[in-house]
Each structure stands twice: as structure tokens, then as C-alpha cells.
Amino acid sequence: MASEFLSEVKQGMRLRGYALKTEKSYLYWITYFIRFHKFRHPSEMGAKEVETFLSYLANQKCVAIGTQKLALNALAYLYNQHLNKPLGDLGFHHAKSPRKIPSVLTPMEVKQLIEASDGKFRTLFSLLYGSGLRVNEGLRLRVMDFDFEACALTVHDGKGKKDRKTLLSQHLEPEVSALISQAKALQIRDNKQNVGPSLPYALDRKYPHAYKQLSWMYIFPSVGLCLHPYTGVLCRHHLSDSAARKALKKAVNACGFGHKRIHCHTFRHSFATELLRNGKDIRTVQELLGHTDVSTTQIYTHVLGTHFAGARSPLDDIK
């Protein structure tokens, strides 16, 4: 029962265009929910069982607030969308997440980390910082996304399925060109086996020879081939984010920055903070980051020692 039902849930999410990571996460929590209730079918349960499960996660398992939200979102999808059996107002209310000021790097620290990185990861981290990208946005970049003439980078299918334009440093042209040459050589070898880069949606059916076009090739291709998660076609995907995290950890240790909380997203935080520090308009920064709400971008104003609007400590006036 469970496997057949979960297959139906998966198909429903794909029909609605949910991201692959969201699909995997929701299926995990829905499976957990079913097992917790001794494999009862979700259609036989409702708000009461959902409340019991969420309370168990919060009180017995002591999961983080973000994890509680994720489990709630998965079950809300299950009942509100898939089963068309709205849960209504649940008695369960998770705690609010405390606002955390993001950790950022100084330009000199960014330079040290980039210089301590190896090969393609040096270029990747440069793009994350220079263009304000999320790590998977950087790893998914294809040859077609670069426009050095306009100093612009196109991010396709970012968070919330949104496309956007952002900044592109001219200093990266030699490095990116070298990666494109390597990707081209790899694509030529793959094409001899009738294999190419993984393509979005049903593009491979609409354009059967698109996999031979250099424009679709990833500049950070994976080492090995894999089956496309949707079509099952043999293809070459991009590098995994775990490879980027390992490379960054190595650079952090080499620079002696182990005392700082640094991850791939720190480059994006530092990009936004530096733009604001240099007097850029917060709406412009919002657009470059792809934030839907400016309040999300405003967190970076709290990172600055001297507020970007000119506020400073009153102690400075009497010293």
C-alpha cells in the first residue's frame, strides 16, 4: 500500500512542478508520518494524527524549528493538495525561529579562501561571491548563462522557480573560458556515446539533438554519468553541492579560519553586505539576490558595523 501510495504522491508533485529536493524531502516526512501511525492510510487519518506526529517531533525527538516547519509543510501538501482533505486550523504551533545575523567575510578573507581553493572550485567560489549565487545556482550554470560583454549572468530556475539577471565580473572571463573549453572536450567525448548534459523538463524530447549543443553544457560537470531523475535517460549532471562543501572546508582549514562559521552561502551573504556597504540601493541588491520580499534583504543591514544609511554609535560624538 505504502509504496503504491507514495508513487502517486510523487507523480502529483511532479505534475505540480515541485523541485526534486522538495519532492525527496516531502516523501521522507510523509513516509515517516505513515510509519509513526503503524502504516495506517493517510486518508483514514486527519488533523488529530498530524498534531500528534508534530508534537512527537517537537517534544520527544527535539527536532529543530526548521525541521518542524518542513514536516508540517509536507503533511499540509499531502492533505491539502494531494488528498484534497484540508487540515484546517491545527492545534499545533511551532516556535518561531529566532532571527540570526548571517556570518560574513571581509574582502581580504574572501580573497584568501579563493586563493586557497583548487581548480574549478576557485572559479565556483569566485562566482558565488562575485554574483551573489546560492551554491546550487552556481553549480547549475551552463555555457549559455554567461554574457561577459554585458557583465551579466543569467540564473535559471532559481529558488521559487524564478529566473534572474545578476552581476558578472570581467576578471573571471579567462577562468570561465578555460572551463568552457574543458566542458566542450568532455561533451564531444560524451556525444560519441549519444550522451550529453542533463536537460530540463521534456527538452530532450522536443529537441532530440539539444544535448550536442555546447550552450547546454554545464561548466561544472560531474565526473561520472547518471540516469536523469525524471526521464531515466543516461546523462551527465553537474557537480554535487557536497563536493563544493568539502572543497570549501579544505580551504577554510588551510587559511586557519576554523573559528568562523563559514559555508558556501557565506559568499552570498558577503556579496550582499559589500554592496550595501558601498552604498548600493537595497532594492537593487534585492533584485540581484532574487528575494521576493525586501524584508529578507534587510537582514544584511544589521551585519554592517556602520549602518549603510549613515547611522553610527553616539559614543563617536563624544570621543
From TrEMBL:
This chain's protein is named Integron integrase
> Would you identify the family this protein belongs to, as annotated?
Belongs to the 'phage' integrase family.
Domain Tyr recombinase as annotated: residue spans? 100-313
Question: Which InterPro entries does its entry note?
Answer: CB, DNA_brk_join_enz, Integrase-like_cat_sf, Integrase_catalytic, Integrase_integron-type, Integrase_recombinase_N, Integrase_SAM-like_N, Tyrosine_recombinase_XerCD
* Organism whose genome encodes this protein: Vibrio ulleungensis
Q: Which residues form the Core-binding (CB) domain?
A: 1-83
Q: Which SUPFAM superfamilies match?
A: DNA breaking-rejoining enzymes (SSF56349)
Family matches, as NCBIfam families: integrase_gron
Gene3D superfamilies reported for this sequence? 1.10.150.130, Intergrase catalytic core
Which keywords does UniProt give here? DNA integration, DNA recombination, DNA-binding
**Top-level taxon of origin:** Bacteria
